[in-house]
Amino acid sequence: MSFTAACVAIEEVARVDPSVAVLLDIQNTLMGNCFAFWGSPALQQTWLPRLASDTVGSFCLSEPGSGSDAFALRTRADLSGDGTHYTLNGEKAWISNSEQAGVFLVFANVDPSKGYKGITCFVVPRDSPGLEIGPKEEKLGIRASSTCPIILNDVVVPNENILGEVGQGYKIAIEILNEGRIGIGAQMVGLAQGALDCTLPYLSERKQFGQAIGQFQGMQHQVAQIAAEVESVRTFVYNTARLKEAGQPFIKEAAMVKLLSSQVAEKTASRCIEWLGGVGFTKAYMAEKFFRDSKIGAIYEGTSNIQLQTIAKFLL
User: Fold this and answer.
1) How far is CA 181 from CA 120, 174, 243, in A?
2) 272, 287 Cβ separation under 8 angstroms
3) CB 180 within 8 A of CB 301
4) pLDDT per residue of the chain (316 residues) written in tens, 0 to 9
5) Distance (Å, rounded) from C-alpha 133 to C-alpha 56?
6) How far is residue 215's CA from residue 226's CA, in Å, rounded to a whole number?
7) What percent of the chain stands above pLDDT 90?
8) Cβ pair 192, 264 in contact under 8 A
9) Residue 29: which of 199, 187, 191 has the closest Cα?
10) Catalytic residues
11) Distance (Å, whole) CA 89 – CA 77
C-alpha cells in the first residue's frame, strides 16, 4: 500500500469512526514505516507480517514530563556489563493502541549526558517481563481508541531489538512524526466529512416556516463555506502526501496540513451541531461524537502551537 493509499483508507474510515482511523494511521504511517525504514532484516521478518495481519503496534515517545518537549524524556536504557542487552526503566504516557498492542516502540535514553543524542528506539514485545500497561484513560473523544500509560520496570531488551542505531532515536521520531501528521490530516478531513454526511440530509428533511431549513439562503451559505473549507484541506492533504512520495520537502506542508485540518474538523463538527439544533446536542445524531473526537486533532502528534513554530522556522 502506498502512503497516499494509506491516507485514503484513513480518511474513509474516519468518516465513520475516527477512533479506528487513528489505529490505521499509527499502524501504517508510524509502526509499519519505522520497521520498513530502520528495522534490521530480522526485525522486519519478525514484525512486518504480524503488523499486516494480527498484531497492533504502539509508538511510545510521550512521558508525564515530556509532551511537546519530547526529547526531555527520562526513560533510561542501561547497557549490561557484557554488552548484550539493555535494561529499560521509566514510564510512558498517552500511548495510543496500548491496551491491544502486541509490540511497542519505546524511546529511551542510553546516555543522558548526551541529551537527545542518547535517545534510542527499542522494540519491546508485549509479553516482555516488567512491561506493565496501566488503566485506560477516560477521554473526551476517540474513546474507542485505547490510551494508557506504559510502565517499564527492569525490562530487558536484547541488542538485536534496537531499531536503527544507538542514539538514532531522536532522528527516527522526528522523521516519522512528520509523516504521521499527514495521516492525522487525512483523519481530520474524514471526520469533517463524516459530520457533514450525518447532518446534510437532516437539512432537507427538517421543515420550519413552511420549507426545509436547507432552503434558507442563510443556511445554504454556511454549508457552502464549510464544504469549501473541507475540500480545500482535503486537497492539501493529498498534495502533501504526493510531495512525500516524490521525495520532495514536505515538513512545512505537513505542519500546515495538521494545523488547518484540525481547525476545519472542529469548526465543521461544531457547525453541524448548530445546524441540527436541539437533536444535534444529543446522542441521537453522530455530530456530537465527531465534535468530541475533533478536539484531539489540535493535540496529538504535535500540538497546534508546535505546528506554528515549525511553519515559522521555514518562513523566517
Assistant:
1) 22, 11, 13
2) yes
3) yes
4) 799 999 999 999 999 999 999 999 999 989 999 999 999 999 999 999 999 999 999 999 999 999 888 889 999 999 999 999 999 999 999 999 999 999 999 999 999 999 999 999 999 999 999 999 999 999 999 999 999 999 999 999 999 999 999 999 999 999 999 999 999 999 999 999 999 999 999 999 999 999 999 999 999 999 999 999 999 999 999 999 999 999 999 999 999 999 999 999 999 999 999 999 999 999 999 999 999 999 999 999 999 999 999 999 999 9
5) 14
6) 16
7) 97
8) yes
9) 187
10) 301
11) 7
Helix axes 251-276, 169-205, angle to 10 degrees: 30
Tell me, letter by letter, the H, E, C secondary structure of 229-297: HHHHHHHHHHHHHHHHHCCCCCHHHHHHHHHHHHHHHHHHHHHHHHHHHHHHHCCCCCHHHHHHHHHHH
Cell numbers linked to 275: 445546524
C-alpha cell at 164: 536503527
CA dist 168 and 50 (Å) reads 24
User: Is the Cβ–Cβ distance between 309 and 302 less than 8 Å?
Assistant: no
CB contact at 8 A, 76 and 92: no
Residue with cell 440530509: 201
Please state the pTM of the whole predicted model. 0.95
Task: Name the one residue in this structure whose C-alpha cell is 520497521.
Answer: 35
**3-class state of residue 177 by DSSP:** helix
Give the model confidence (pLDDT) of 151-194 as tens digits: 999 999 999 999 999 999 999 999 999 999 999 999 999 999 99
Give the whole-angstrom CA distance, residue 116 versus residue 120: 9
CB atoms within 10 A of CB 284: 11
* Residue 188: strand, helix, or coil: helix
Q: Report the length, in residues, of the chain.
A: 316
CB 45 within 8 A of CB 53: no
